[in-house]
Amino acid sequence: MNDTTFSLAAILPAMPEIYLTGAICVLLLFDVFFALKRPERTATFALLLLLGGAAITLATHEFGVRQVLFDSMYIADDLGMLLKLASFVFVAVALFYSNDYLARRKLQQGEYYVLTLTALLGILVLTSAGNLLSVYVGIELLSLSLYALVAFDRDNGIAAEAAMKYFVLGAIASGTLLYGMSLIYGLSGSLSLQVINHAFSGEPSLGLILGLAMVVVAIAFKFGAVPFHMWVPDVYQGAPTSVTLLVASAPKIASFAVAYRLLAEGLGDATGTWTQMLAILAVLSLVAGNIIAIAQTNLRRMLAYSAISNVGFILLGFVTGTSAGYQASLYFTIVYVMVVLGTFGVILLGSRNGYEADELDDYKGLAARDPSLAFIMAVFMFSTAGIPPFVGFWAKLRVIEALIGADHIWLSGVAVLMSVIGAFYYLRVVWLMYFDAPGDRPRGEPRLSLRFVVGVNAAAALALGLMPDALLDVCLKVVRPG
Amino acid sequence: MLVQFLFYAFAAVLLGSAFGVITSRNPVHSALYLVLAFFTSAGLWLLIEAEFLAIVLVLVYVGAVMVLFLFVVMMLDINAEEVRKGFTRYAWLGWLTVLAVAFEIVGVVVVRRMGVDVTRVPVPVAADHSNTADLGAVLYTRYVYPFELAAVLLLVAIVAAIVLTMRKRKGLKLQDINAQVATQARDRVRIIKMAAERRE
Fold it and tell me: Is the peptide bond before A468 cis (omega within 30 degrees of 0)?
């Protein structure tokens, strides 16, 4: 018990988390002392802190080394570094997109940025979790911050309703998670994933499988996989668009991280028990997400169902139970989050005071009113639909390849079929923008810097599609064949 | 022998009070039953020599959380009839949950019978052994990481609670300290010169 003495060198691999915790406190104080009357200062400072975090993540990481800290609570490896770096960057981009929207709606308060950073801290914790305890604390950190952010626009009844639904369902999911964890703990005698993995290898008992099933339910809820997806459409539609952007982007990385650390890495000897559970979730998500999305008239709601179907794809990679599958999932997650950021960036660009630009009808004839915005949106839609040469195509292809490689022909068939059905509603947006009569919608404001970054985002979707190997190689490197 | 007797006594009271929480019609009674349940579980924890946790349970849950809870229950003036509407309609869902949970509990018990190494009985320790010191030793060494994160979690709760409840409404009655201090006699008292009048 006394062997755990701390020196700076021993906790150095956890520097990103330590830095971010400090940054959160500094930001809180900064907001009070320097930015009470001018909240845009907090916004800029938060962005700088995030970029600093990305730099520190890169600088303090030892490549190719896997370290286990804090009595197996924390795992520092290349995968964790990549996910942390991506989370820092994606959250920074999300904040950059949101600033203008927040300022316009008088939502730009220091607490918004503080809660965003605490959500990010939750994500970071999950990317390195090596113990059920850190998984639980990470999930709670992330969820609690997101509940508050969804309700941030207090005078908006729809947002309050969405937050309430999210909160109540999230609390039930947390309860399920804890119950499952307590079953596993009671039967294996440890919270450390290594020991639990050992208990699962061989012939796992009924109690262990029940516990695992409940943990998987909770993960599925955080992912928003069918049948635990009820909160997703309401939150996507009800929350302020800037919050939807946040909920839709970086937390998906956290979900991937939990699934990977907990199931693929933690319970790697028991793949047989959890891949079947995930296969059911994945197929249901693909089918329900893609088919219900067709019926939506609200773009944000449509993107919510699109998110559900994309989660199905991420889960499919896990179903294979092979490192090729995990690599495909990782690649898919990063690509998906990048494209989703851009899509919501376009919605934010198109919005004005009292006009959200989130109905499908708002996009009728956008090409005539605002050609560059329409083009950018078309790039993102093509990419999500999985049409070559955009990056979304390679992501889907990778997952399907991994499925075939693991002899899941039937599942890959479902995936292809559902992608084709899904392409319909993405292409419908493009159709509305280019081939429909323009309505008398207000034009979004120019906002050049924002437009430039969204443009870069779209260019990245195209460039990564033309040269898919760069990112793919990174994904192949960080997920060790196990 | 005495320990066993105490265990079953506490357990019986605990089960009875837990049953009371969900069956009593008056929410205040439910809350008081819950207090009783906390007290008896604290007693159970004392029996397994977890003194510190037992005391914390009483201090935090009984002393703080439940008192707060009672305040809320009394202030909200919940109409119990209104809440119970649709109870029979959703009862099947409740039964389904009960069945599922019962199934799981039975499952765990059956697994135990099958000879799996379930959590071991704690080894008795010397009378002067400090449970609190043990907890302190692991809390800041083995569990320092989740412990610190739990602290951040509380910070999030504080920030979220403040941002969601502190609002500047119109017509809110607030003290303006500056105005109060700067006030002068002539702002408050009007001195009128008038002829004396006779009372009728």
Answer: no
